[in-house]
Amino acid sequence: MKKRSKRYKEIFKNSIKDKKVSAKEALDLVKKNSTTKFDESIDVTLKINLKQTKGGDFSLRTVVNLPNGSGKKHKVAVLCESEKIDDAKKAGADVVGSDDLIEKIASGKFNFTKLVCTPSMMGKIGKHGKVLGPKGLMPNPKLGTVATDLSKAIKDIKTGLVEIRNDKDGNLASTIGRKSFSTEKLLENYKHFIESVKKEKPETIKGELVKNIYLTSTMGISYKIGAK
Hints:
Oligomer: single chain
Order of helices and strands: HHEEEHEHEHHHEEHEE
Strand content: 15-25%
């Protein structure tokens, strides 16, 4: 029999079974349950409707720019033409390169969490999709990581742009902040996130796109969201 920690037993007292709560109530409880020493991530998980009236199952992959940021720190690399390297550095890129960066990527010797690429360099990076793809680092225009405006792309990633995509079962998860955020800021991020996802609903899906919503923290318990 699995033994539960004292901390888990304490926060489990705050669990709510068979009942939906408002997002604000859930966020207050999630923050209360975040009793670890580190700044836990506050996460939202959605169950979305994938069934279309025609065609295959719907697949959602996009980005949401949270109004109060995500609290997650990214190490951003920029792949660009040689003449744009200085501009990328000034814009805040952590790693910048041209053909030299492609060589590092090809060898698998790189250390960054996001890769931004200029359109003209996409032809050179395409063949390295097998290296970047599994790590979720392949630049994509829909995700804001193929850009001519490098300054904006870098700023967006560093200040609150989160990438979302569903799995084959219709589950979709993302961070909406940290436990150090105020409930008001988390609630604003939450509402913006949910509305952004709902706007992605295609006409070929009948009924609601979002079926269920849950809020939790890195080391906490989850709450099912109902009323606003």
